[in-house]
């Protein structure tokens, strides 16, 4: 029986599907590159992940799978990928990593041509006066 879903429910389902699709696309891109360069096969991926080839084939067909974090980590490990997780606040555009807000140095996309047809360097925006949480590490973003 079909029931009417709230807008919030539909948006949540959409966000979940998009995230699943992003992981599938990411892994498929890595697999395709490895197939091209090293004759990598889905059978090899299945062996490295510890499952069978039919399960791996199903992952990349039709609707995106609902992988667990462990499965995502296993696939990334099998493909020798280091995953970097970053989130962007939809309202403010602030980016976050596991260690906190990511320092942003914005560059304007506007480049002005001079009389000699060369391109001037982009204008740098000074973010030093922006309010940020105190940095806890010396890592440069």
Strand order of the biggest β-sheet: 1-2-3
- Radius of gyration, rounded? 21 Å
Shape descriptor reads globular
What is the count of β-strands? 3
Determine the number of helices (DSSP H or I, runs of at least 4 residues).
Answer: 4
What do these coordinates show?
- Helix content is 40%, strand content 5%.
- The protein is mainly alpha-helical.
- The protein folds into 2 domains: 7-78, 434 Repressor (Amino-terminal Domain) (Orthogonal Bundle), CATH 1.10.260; 86-141, no CATH class.
- It has a 3-stranded antiparallel sheet, with no helix packed on it.
- Helix 2 packs across helix 3 (53-59).
- It is globular.
Short précis:
With 141 residues, the chain is mainly alpha-helical.
Summary keywords:
141 residues; mainly alpha; 434 Repressor (Amino-terminal Domain); disordered C terminus
Give me the secondary-structure topology.
Layout lengths: L6 H32 L3 H8 L3 H7 L9 H10 L8 E2 L6 E3 L2 E2 L40
Antiparallel strand pairs: 1-2, 2-3
Helix pairs in contact: 2-3
